[in-house]
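Dear colleague,

As promised, here are the two records you asked about, laid out in our usual form so they can be pasted straight into your sheet.

NAME FIELD: protein one
SEQUENCE, THEN STRUCTURE:
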Amino acid sequence: TKMVETEKHLVFPLVYKLIELALLLPVSTASVERAFSAMKNIKSKLRSTINDGWFSHLMICYTEREIFKSLDDEVITRRFQAMKARKGILPRVS
């Protein structure tokens, strides 16, 4: 903050970038540790009997559980039951 106030970040851009990276490191490390912790929990509970696709889906649900908590289970259940192939078809990307 002091570097920006005194405009020293313009004079020493590499030092400013190094400080930015040093401040971001704990945040990125925590998110990686959280993902590995989730993998450990999922793998130990299911005893490694799942395939990679299912494991990937479980990891997304576990790491983004705050988003999934806000979803209504009844709506998801009805949509899943209405599907014929049990797979969602994604639109083609041009």
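NAME FIELD: protein two
SEQUENCE, THEN STRUCTURE:
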Amino acid sequence: MVRHHYTTTQLIAKEGWNHIVFTFMVFLLSYALSFFSWFFFFVLVVTIYIYRNPERIVEESDELTLLSPVDGTILKISKVDLKDGSEALCVVIRKSIWDVGILRAPIGMEIIEVKNRFGLFISSGSSLFSNLCERKTFTCKNKFTSFKIVVSAGRLSQSIVFFNKNAYKANERFGFLREGEVALLLPLDVRIKVSLNHSVKAGESVLGYLAYKDNHDKQ
């Protein structure tokens, strides 16, 4: 896992600055040599686009609202069995390289544990992706519930970047993924709003709502 200091709000994500400077220098060289300068200018524009870092306005601000943690398309909504014998509602979002790469907190949360699984950077469409890909699993909690965020890196991701912070507000930037999948493992009583193949935006689109639980109800 790559851990950086807390993110910035520039129009271009700092994770792409080195790539952009490199492609810009190559473009200048190609322009000076009159060697396919149009092609390298196109590469520069594409690189800037991949690392764009737009601001996002939350559709709903209720503290029970669950936002999308990443831009992409809803790939899966199902009930799954966890290793501890419990069950969870799994929502998987597939992110292409053309989607914004910034990861955002789906709800106000504290990160309790991070588990790393080192693996291969392979296509997210491969049948081997789930078993062999590079993956980071975050166990999170807030005052209402606990849940997991599973980030899997695809073929075009060199790494999975997370920022050096443990507590986040809803919609706050917490990492960067160039391409791959993000899965949320949620309590079964979460009310899901989206459906399969639904396009979502990180920190803006509402995935669903947590069930309200009064502490007095447990007594």
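A couple of things worth noting about protein two: The mean pLDDT is 89. The longest helix spans residues 17-32.

Best,
R.
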